Amino acid sequence: MEEYGEVMEKMDIWDSWNYLEKKEMILGSLGLTSDFLEREIAEISGGQANRVALAGVLISSPNLLLLDEPTNNLDAETLEFLKKFIQEGKFSLLLVSHDRQFLDETIDEILEIDEESLTVSHFGGNYSFYVAEKKKIFDKQVAAYEEQRRKREQLEKAAKALRQKAAKFERFSQNAFYKAKGAKLAKQANIQFKRIQEELNSIPEPKPPKKPTFVVEENEKRGLLAKVFNIFFAYPDQKNLFSNFSFSLNGNERVAIIGPNGIGKTTLIRLILGEVKPTEGEITITKNVGYLPQIPGEVDKSENVIDYFRKQVTVSEEEAKKILGQVLFSDVSYKKISDFSSGEIRRIQIAILFAKRPDLIILDEPTNHLDVYTIEMLEEALKRFRGGILVASHDEWFLRDIKINRLLIFKEKKEILDVKTTPEKISLKSHVYNFI
Fold first, then answer.
1. Which fold would CATH assign to domain 2-114?
2. Quick one: what percent of the chain has pLDDT higher than 90?
3. How far apart are the C-alpha atoms of 290 and 385, rounded to whole Å?
């Protein structure tokens, strides 16, 4: 009976009585149907494999949940489920993420690892609190440094006056008393200067964190950039993804494609780029297009980074060094692609995109696999860009920040809504994509 009681207690702790119900709820919320679960792992995509792994972790009822970039490859509906699961869960959470909206809604502490010093700083709040605190700390450091500089200037001025007075006594007076006084003043001046060096150089000049800078050339483009007219498309042996669909994009428009995974967002991008052809209908697009795919293409890692850059952009070697130096923070002259991390290679590809001076930029889940600083600098670059933008993304913070003004909302039953919006109205919530 004692052993039976212990087992029953563990069943209660692990909430095992509701295991099957909980399992079905989690699998359904992550879009993992029973038919899907019969497939071999080798047959599914990386994003789908991530969801399978996430489901296994959530079903296990952990006391400590460790998540590494869990929002990559999740659509808005699945993101909302994961947020709610975390908010209502009775477990500790350690999370690595670049998704600022997700961090704002799921965590109450942040640990920051400084890239250069490798020191760890603690902030007791969500991401917005962290940003505000970082600014306060930096402003306080600037104020302390400026106060130190002001005091140093005052003391240096006083010490300089003492030295001048001492020199005057020693130079022009034959009287031993005044010579001694001059020597005393000189000693005081030296003590003052020593104090300045020891006490008033203790606070280094604060510098903001290094952030990559993407060069955006003036290249304003107006008029029609892309037109999709009455297209039909289906993959072999599947139903139509698009039936009689039309869409156009002008130079002053910033369009976001949003909707559940697997509904056709990336396929529309591939159709517009000409990577796949519609079964019916017509697509025209400007020649000068910059494209950042969701999954980076293969690169020759033995290639010199300058050569890699100049193969894709017609610039001098010096100009290539200058552009790459702004995104990689170092002399890249003799480095190969293999010397850089996947995140740094992604920065290089973004730098190439802007260096081509496109009329239209097309982005497919661009914030996946980027650190927050790079995302912020990409946002700044896109705000300066004066052409058209077409982006598929689940990152609503990103969409608001780049000033999206139009949405293509992919819904179930192949319905696509085309609506104008403003950044502050964008909210990809729950089972419905809200835009008003």
1. Rossmann fold (3.40.50)
2. 43
3. 12
